[in-house]
Automatic annotation (TrEMBL):
Annotated stretches, region: Disordered: 457-477
Matches recorded under Pfam families: AAA_25, ChlI, Zn_ribbon_LapB
Signal sequence segment: none
Chain ranges of the RecA family profile domain: 70-220
UniProt domain comment: The middle region has homology to RecA with ATPase motifs including the RadA KNRFG motif, while the C-terminus is homologous to Lon protease.
Positions bound to ATP: 99-106
Function: Plays a role in repairing double-strand DNA breaks, probably involving stabilizing or processing branched DNA or blocked replication forks. DNA-dependent ATPase involved in processing of recombination intermediates, plays a role in repairing DNA breaks. Stimulates the branch migration of RecA-mediated strand transfer reactions, allowing the 3' invading strand to extend heteroduplex DNA faster. Binds ssDNA in the presence of ADP but not other nucleotides, has ATPase activity that is stimulated by ssDNA and various branched DNA structures, but inhibited by SSB. Does not have RecA's homology-searching function.
SMART domains: AAA
Family (UniProt): Belongs to the RecA family. RadA subfamily.
CDD domains for this protein: RadA_SMS_N
Protein name: DNA repair protein RadA
Keyword terms, alphabetized: ATP-binding, DNA damage, DNA repair, DNA-binding, Hydrolase, Metal-binding, Nucleotide-binding, Stress response, Zinc, Zinc-finger
Amino acid sequence: MAKHNQTFACQSCGAVYNRWRGRCEACNGWNTIVEETGAASPVSGPVATRPSRARGRVFPLEGLSGEAKEAPRTSSGIAELDRVTGGGFVRGSVILLGGDPGIGKSTLLMQASAALAARGERVAYISGEEAVGQVRLRAERLGLSGAPVELAAETNVEDIVATLTQGRPPALAIIDSIQTMWTETVESAPGTVTQVRGSAQSLIRFAKTSGTAVILVGHVTKDGQIAGPRVVEHMVDAVASFEGDQGHHFRILRAVKNRFGPTDEIGVFEMTDGGLAEVPNPSALFLAGRDLAAPGTAVFAGMEGTRPLLVEIQALVAPSALGMPRRAVVGWDPNRLSMVLAVLEAHGGIRLGGHDVYLNVAGGLRIGEPAADLAVAAALVSSLSGAPLPSDAVYFGEVGLSGAIRPVAQAPARLKEAQKLGFARALMPHGRGEAPERGFPAESLRHIADLVAGVAAGKAAPRGGRRPPVPAYDPEE
């Protein structure tokens, strides 16, 4: 008779304990430890009589003298999705896709499945949350009801693998979602750490042996993290996050981890009546409709992976009647804002201790690189002084604690994107010999005091009354 082992596992991080505890010591989560029961395989007989497990095959490492060949990829038919995955789906790879409910994960995967199946590839869409009829209704709304995609509503991993192994291996298999899957080898409820880990391991083994690219859809928690054990993110080859705000019509697919391509790459989509449409020029989308004469706005030339991206930084500095002024940030790191405010007060001569500060990245985009420090500082100084910044200029640079403006990487790509959208100049750090684009003047700044002095002297006003161009967003561009 099988012997049962009782363990207690944290449902947030996957840590295992031998008894129940109120707080997990690994992730500091409260009331996340749940009792789980698993069947241990019986072991009988001496070690010498056990069958040998050395049954694996070994393969020679060929091509040592030649050039390394790139892993074969299968294009999804969606350029933005291929950009995030590094050029397409690698055979035998496993991708974990997370996102808020209703953000458009199933819509994106249905469009990718239909595009791939239209080229003659075998594609399987396995839904553990919806019936086959519900999936067909979504396909009809997207105009993809005629796509030769194989649909199934199943949650048992063994049945799914047995079905997919019949016939030729699928080029793509979608599991929606991994939290609903369960395997017979684990005696736990679906959704627990043990079941999610065991189901993911079985699907990963199937992907590696058959060469099928598998996409696992994962739920997210309230703070935006993918639910379930973090060990699943370490097991898969790539992790992508589908981001977006319900108040905005665009969605961002961001690569968090990718063994076969660059990380921090993004793909921008627009939610339309016919599904998700690609946005090949996201800079024009984020800058469309901005107020050119309003103080407190600066255009930041940033980088998202290998793609240059222009976005508007909005700041509002207002006198505060509270004993402790408010600091509200949307789309940026609040700790980074506190640092920039301290540098402006210590080295720029700007007194912001009695003012409320509100900072927003227009369009709902989240920025993580320190190159936005200079644009944020320019927007803060402009809002406090009431002088609008030149709307034909872009800003980028890292601000140090000493007030020095430090250079950032990929300056030529940022300047090229700004010049393409009609901007006339750039305010950037005193760089490392990176030459700006021809015909694109760049003003080098060494210290934060240079920026403050320029705004105070009125250099931020548009020159000669010239009204800079406003990039127009064309969804078909």
